[in-house]
Amino acid sequence: MNPKSIIKGRGAQLNVHNRFFELSHEQRDDFLEFCHIEGEEPDKNKTQYLSVFPKTIVNKVTSPDVGMMYSMNMYQGCEHGCIYCYARNSHEFWGYSAGLDFERKILVKKEAPKLLEQLLKKKSWQAHTIVMSGNTDCYQPAEKQFKITRDCLNVFLKYKHPVGIITKNALILRDLDILKELAKDNLVAVNISITSLSEKTRQILEPRTATIKKRLKTVEVLSKNDIPVNVMLAPIIPSINSHEILPLAKAVSEAGALSIGHTIVRLNGAIGEIFTDWIKKALPDRAEKVLHQIENCHGGTLNESRFGKRMRGEGEIAKQINDLVKLAKLKYFKNKTMVKLNTSLHKTYKDGQLKLF
């Protein structure tokens, strides 16, 4: 990788056109030349936090491929910058690009705890596990400043309501005090995403995420505190991390994880263009091989939307990956089981305190 050809600390290396916009923006050569002459930076590469005010915070999940009924996202966009992230496309709905905008324009929902509490207090609401976050990471760098995720966890604890968490950031350990209280009543489960044991691979795939060492330590600390952990080996990308399935499973099992899950990478919408541009810059020696193998998993295309196929793929390479995961589960998780969360307490605590009469 040529360090002069990349934008440091970012996954995407360009802003692709927003398919919902008639107009597009580009940096012209004459503008770049002007900046060079004037000694100015054409792109300051700064992260912006922008407040947004949605009317609701919990979404019903209708996809049969996703193991959740409800999700909530405190942030839209994600500074982690994972190049493969399926959530990039959702940034276009907000008027931004799925490329660099997704990593640098973070939309912050400061009213999330209030909106969550309003929902949990409704007489019509029946407890189902709500997952933070189904789209972007609830413990991304913005959480250090805004602490919205922590405030939402306190709401879940107050109303004794089950919550699932998906993250790849060790920042979750900041909230160990609340998580331990939730775990006492079997009200929390954590999903940690670990895509590789190689720091070099992590740095190019997920530039602003926690190190692999920190993530494995996070699994260990949570597990030792009786907080159930599932590890997502996701996504599996042929010829990038597909050879690591068994060692990854072994490492997370030894750290205390109760189960693993996986997906095979799919590059829908704008992500195909973003990923293709990235891999030709980051891994030019194997770019074509990787792209062709991804296509092999999805009927000859990078894009896969069919329910039942999009997460697991099809074809010879996909079968090899899926068979390896099955073997990993048999080898390292044979006597382990992920718990089912408790939905029985919330009704009693709906008014915020235990009813005695």
UniProtKB/TrEMBL annotation:
**Coiled-coil positions:** none
**Which keywords does this chain's UniProt record carry?**
Iron, Iron-sulfur, Lyase, Metal-binding
Task: State the name under which the record lists this protein.
Answer: DNA repair photolyase
Q: Which GO terms describe its molecular function?
A: iron-sulfur cluster binding; lyase activity; metal ion binding
Please give the SUPFAM superfamilies that the UniProt record associates with this protein. Radical SAM enzymes (SSF102114)
Q: Taking every annotated instance into account, which residue ranges of this chain make up the domain Radical SAM core?
A: 61-310
One Pfam entry name: Radical_SAM
